[in-house]
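HOLO CASE FILE
Compound: adenosine-5'-triphosphate
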Amino acid sequence: MTDTLLDVSGVTMRFGGLTAVNDVSLTVGQGEIIGLIGPNGAGKTTFFNCLTGLYVPTEGTVTFRGSVLPPKPHLVTQAGIARTFQNIRLFANMTVLENVLVGRHTRTREGLLSAILRGPGYRRAEAESREKAMELLEFTGLAAKADHLSRNLPYGEQRKLEIARAMASDPGLLLLDEPTAGMNPQETRAAEELVFAIRDKGVAVLVIEHDMRFIFNLCTRTAVLVQGQKIVEGDRETVQNDERVITAYLGAPLAETGPDQATGAAPVTGTDPTEADQ
Ligand SMILES: Nc1ncnc2c1ncn2[C@@H]1O[C@H](COP(=O)(O)OP(=O)(O)OP(=O)(O)O)[C@@H](O)[C@H]1O
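Model generated. Tokens follow.
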């Protein structure tokens, strides 16, 4: 049994009359990789936003390392949760290295005055941050592009850079929101390896993905959200064989490669929960 890192209890998020997340509970243990899947509009990103302080849940509590999380994003980051976004949010005109350094600032203690005066404490902290950032660029395979502007990176590398930046805050838990969106199959396999490597560094991962092969290759447990409710949670077998999951994904067009925008259903090739590799 793993030690519980994240304990989400009965989280509900309402927007006026719409209940986007409905009484969802979930735990993530130390060193686990947990999946969160569901059709478009199921409430997955809203659930992440409730964990990271972007939204204050209407009901429920989020506990991390035994303490209730303050509903402020920078305090959540300081507590040890980092995330990436579905729509890449890099600083386009900063270099790759600078983007990672931005992610590092929650872990540097030097204050504004020290930064202005550029005293020895500041210079030491800056040198340490750069070293740490370069290590992360090595780790994610981006070191050779440290001085490139992030907007000039290919899409798959921008996603990796988002992960490097999130890792710069030394998280205990990393939340990934559709990390393989827009990636080709080779990039997706490389992203799997990266997530395993992150886990091997002792960082737990909670990942939203539409690519079921990716999810089932990585995750020990997967929770399925449909219309804001968690309908099932378990290993690959449990999820794939659950009638409600199959029903939620039925109607998937056979030949598509991305999630179907109209139904929110995942396409069959590589992404249907009933079709993933055994
Ligand atoms: N700030 C908001 N105000 C009002 N409604 C919102 C807000 N954020 C999300 N919603 C609604 O909550 C529901 C869940 O959306 P959410 O983006 O969490 O789904 P999702 O499962 O992440 O979908 P996708 O797979 O398409 O990213 C949707 O109906 C969405 O329109």
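CASE NOTES: The first strand starts at residue 4 and ends at 15. The CA atoms of residues 4 and 168 lie 23 Å apart.
CLOSED: yes
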